[in-house]
Design goal:
Layout lengths: L7 H8 L9 H9 L3 H27 L4 H21 L1 H11 L6 H22 L7
């Protein structure tokens, strides 16, 4: 799929929840429907959490001089909790992102489901229904 990718500044805006210009609509759908969509979602969440974690570290460990181990454990638990809830709601979050860019509600989930079904049918046609493998 040949789609126009956003530049790094626009991608950062997109990663923290911003809406991209309409010329990137196809890329947003591509981003939400490729087989690695969940990895991309996790990367966006890490980019979102990184400045918050850095600020908390600076305030707690540097400015208030808390014990470093306590700060790191607290930040680690914060990352765990943030990623846990992000993954629970990942499908809804990605569908909402696609809807914000002009596609119908739950369109990304429907596209992913159709792509998975097509892949399953290709696999079954080749390996389950007597298709001979090519050499």
């Amino acid at each position: 799929m040949d789609v126009k990718r956003p530049n790094p500044a626009l991608w950062l805006w997109y990663a923290v929840g911003g809406k991209l210009p309409d010329r990137y609509r196809e890329w947003v759908l591509h981003d939400a429907t490729v087989p690695t969509w969940l990895v991309r979602h996790v990367i966006r969440r890490i980019v979102f959490l990184a400045p918050i974690l850095a600020l908390l570290y600076l305030v707690l460990a540097v400015w208030l001089d808390f014990d470093l181990m306590i700060v790191l454990v607290g930040l680690g638990l914060g990352v765990y909790t943030g990623m846990y809830y992000s993954l629970i709601f990942s499908t809804h979050s990605v569908d909402s992102r696609v809807t914000r860019h002009g596609y119908p509600d739950q369109y990304a989930s429907q596209v992913r489901k159709a792509l998975k079904q097509a892949e399953r049918e290709r696999y079954n046609a080749r390996w389950r229904n007597g298709g001979a493998p090519s050499l």
